[in-house]
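Q: Start with the shorter request: fold the first protein.
A: Done. Sequence, then structure:
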Amino acid sequence: MTDLFLETTGFTREEFVGHDALTLLSRSAVEDAPVEDGGDDALAEAIQRLLDADTIAVETVETEIPTADGDTASFTLDLVSRPSDEEFRGSVGVHPTESEQEIRDRELWVKTHAMDDADIALCLSDPNRPDNPLIYVNKGFEEVTGYTASEAIGQNCRFLQGEETDPETVDQLREAVDEGEPASVELKNYRKDGTPFWNRVEVVPIRDESGDIVHFLGSQRDITERKQREQQLREQREQLLALDQLNRVIRGINSALVSMSTREEVEEIVCERLADSSSYAAAWIGEVNSARGTITPRASAGIDTASLSSETESLDATDGERASPAMRATRSQEVEVVTDVEDEPDSEWRSWALENGYRSVAAVPIGFQEFQYDVLTIYSSREHGFTGQERDAVAQLREIVGHAINAIERKEALLDNIVVQLEFVMRDPESPLFAATDGSDCTVTYERTIPLADDKAIQFIRVHGMGWEEVRTALTDDPSVDHARVVSEREDGCLVEIRSPETPITSKLAGYGGQVVEAVVEDGEFRVVVEVPHEIDLREIATAVQRAYPDAELVAQRSTTRSVQTLKQFQSALASRLTDKQQAALEAAFAAGYFTWPRESTGEEIAEGLGIAPATFHEHLRNGLSQLLGASLEGADRSD
């Protein structure tokens, strides 16, 4: 309170400090004071209006103030309210016998002084001047926007707008100002240094005694943190929804793949299931040809493959940073994710993606082991998609789809009459078994390879010219063998079962749709002959083998015709009836002499090689034999 107020009322400062100001200012506090012209009601009503206001407001009330000597004095009360989350303040003016101009000056001083001290950004504009310029900003405005008062005054508030300011929200604010109505909006503005911030803008008109609008009072609140939290929560909800839907899609794809008989059907069902999900807009699969350096679209859903030229340019023609996700995934052999297309460098594919409303992209190389068949690209209209668990789930499609395509091609390979024989030669000077054959009459023939879980395998090798004790000594020093036992021993050699902790070359070649017809170690060299379908990319197989075994050399390539097609057809039909575990048990039992008499191996010995319990082995063997007999006898004429 000012000295002038204390002098006029006769109160001391101590009598006011710490007391309810409104009670002291109300003339109802004066004993026996007459009630005149509703003054108390006017003050109470003004106070109530301020309390009900959700933005800054000013009320001016003429009233009688009690004095220390029991009399009253006429005062004008200027009351200023703040929003509900801030304190309420009032200010007291001088006696109303001032001139009209003095009163207006005093009122302006009181109001601007109150706004200067406000904790939020405030500004006043004059709609009676061209372009409704700012005529006042407080310190809060300067702190929020970074502009000084001298830089802001004289400009329309639109100077805070920028590239990402929503024009519809701006129109909403402009319409309210044109109609003289209060408005409250949230829009993105920009500080002096160019950094964007979310601004809650509230505008109220200020009218004179005639009801004409003389100013607009605006307040700004930086709500960036709240907006960021809302955005994070929204993205988390979207990611959880996308993850749930993606898991459903993957389960649906797994179920559908069981009945698929061609590679084309597999690719089409994958694209359709992804595009049908509400989390994704489109998907397409392209075949990778490493020899030509191209990607050729094979299947799509939700997208026109004719428009994919920017995605399928030559693998060697595009700068790495500007290459499409499909190209980057093909080169890196890893899942490539673009969480926000707008953040990507300018390129043809980026422009095309934005034109189609795609905001995030994932590209997944589809393959089996080292062999790549396709690349799958998935588009979403969501920003910041394919992160965290969603990315991990998308990555699963590599193995799921790759395994399905590989199984189909292996089946086709068994039924294909025209094949290509590839002959590889490998040298491994660190292998004691290889070294034992160098310069001697000893040979090692790989008779059968049976793949196990975790890329392991057991192999049955026939050794000529070396006894079991010598073989065991050599295998003990071989780090590529973690289990070995003799199945049978003769004068000229022995049959040995070995297990490798790594995938052997014979298994890898079978994984590419090939059938190993010969695998022999002689004179320190390992020679492998494999038959593959004639339409397989031979360069891709050779590259994959040399990537896994750097010393491998392709020494021969020739076309041939399989002599016994009906046998392969039977094997294919049988393979479709057997589980992997049943087939492994049958093959291991057959190779280990379990069905000979006397038996060369017991069930316990074979189970140990397979890494399973004897009871489990016998169960798989029994079920496998049942399927084998069923495949052999079904359809036989029983009329005799």
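Q: Next, the second protein, separately.
A: Sequence, then structure:
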Amino acid sequence: MEARIIPICKRLFLASLLSLGAVPPAAADTGHLADYLKAGAADADGRVDLAAAGYARALAAAPASTAVALRAYREALAAGDVALATRAVAVLRGRPEAPADLPLLPLAVAAAKQDVAGATAATDALAATPLAVLVPSLRAWIAFAEGTDPAPQIARAGKDPVSQRLTAETAALLQIARGDTARGLATIQALRETGSPVDLRLSAGQLLFGRGETDRARALLAGGDPGFAAVRAGDAAQPTLGFGVSRLLGRIAGDLADQDATDLSIALARTAVIAYPANDRARLLLAAALAKDKAIPRALATLDGIAPASPYAATAGATRISILTTAGRPADALALARSGAERAGAGESDWQTYADQLSAMNRHREAADWYRRVVDADPTAWSAWLQYGGALEQAGDWPAGRVALQKAVAIAPREPLALNYLGYAQAERRVDVPQSIAMLERAHALKPDDASIADSLGWAYFIGGDLTRAQPLIESAAAGDPINAEIGEHLGDLYWTRGRRYEARYAWRAAALTASADDATRLATKAVQGLPRK
């Protein structure tokens, strides 16, 4: 009996999926439904390699199915399976279901081969999509690759501000590539005044190193940004078509990193790597996008593609630690951070990363020892003193922590984070409350929209007995950050003290929803018993 029930149930299940559009009829008709369904399950679990293999079998069985091809295209890009992605593109090209980013793959493949005709055809296809903002810049790089003047293509940016921005950046890089270095650097300087991306200077630095203009490259890359430090070591590049296309695709991928556009981010970053395999910055972006899509094994494997000798090797290590932490593997992240901090030749960034991991695991005393190494390496860095002092304070060594925090404020007297931390820590301990209020007032004036700083100042007023000035600040902080348990608790304490008992209990109960287990227990007790009488 069971042997008959299972096929019947399976057919009913398949019919329901088909009615919802979850399974393309072509896949169902071929007997390869299992491949399709297993691929979907693997996709949901972030196992993109297994998903791509399943969709490859399903596409082979249903070669005309656009539904299967679309899923295969996405998983192939995530898995780095260029052959499967190319097959899927062939099925989807010219179809209404085709995604806007479909021409990116043939563009990247052509650019990697210096195939001007192929790159031109793919660029023409992009012109009819929302990614048309890339077209003038792409055509400029194609013109350069052909040996013709790219300026007429740059001039075709039109009135779209994104396209204008991209072509201005492209013009600067092509000026350097053509030997007009002074003009290119002047263009970059003009763009910096309106907020140019870090990526532009990195790319320009690579081209300058490639031209042997080492001094100019290092001057352009001055500063503490880790990317600048990486390229300053001498990361040279030649202005090939692959380099130009990769830079543009990576540029947009970087802009989308914090947006909810994972499929497009993966497509842009993957094709940036295909166009120019030496683009390790694009690999970092790809790994981050994959991790955001829960494809943790593939994200880590992508980082494996960054060689130890790469200028981005240290950043790749930090990214790996971040991915492991986000994936709920803190022990693995900590072990990796420790090995980096203890290796021969380890430096400030390695110690910082390990200290951050220890701090995240509430091992503040150990974290303080490593933050101290960072302080000793650069005693003028206020942020290092702040983290060192914060770790000491969290570890229970308030006297030493206060000294370190005071050092941070002395170095950066207009830095809101330093003022806020020291001011709040002192106020909480009823230490020099008037001075603490003065620091927090300065912090609030410097960063008036910061909910945490507003809450700190309001709480200091509360501690000092000025409930009238405390209330609007804590209320605004709670409205600005409604899931912050500490702010919610402060709001409840304020309302209770002002006799607004019902609102106080509501605030405490709401705060308990997002508080740690210990804090939630204390808040639940407050909600029942209120504040003790003084």
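Q: Describe the second briefly.
A: Confidence is low (pLDDT under 50) at residues 1-23, 25-31. Residues 101 and 383 are 41 Å apart (CA to CA).
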